[in-house]
Amino acid sequence: MSDVGRTEIRLADAADAAVIARIHMISRAATMPYLPPQKRGHDQVTRWIEDVVLTSCRTWVAVRGGEILGYAALEGDMLEHLYLRPEVRRRGIGTLLLDQVRRHSPDGVSLRVFQQNTDARAFYELHGFRVLDTSDGHRNMENLPDMTLRWTPDGAR
Question: What is the rounded CA–CA span in Å between residue 30 and residue 127?
Answer without folding.
Answer: 22
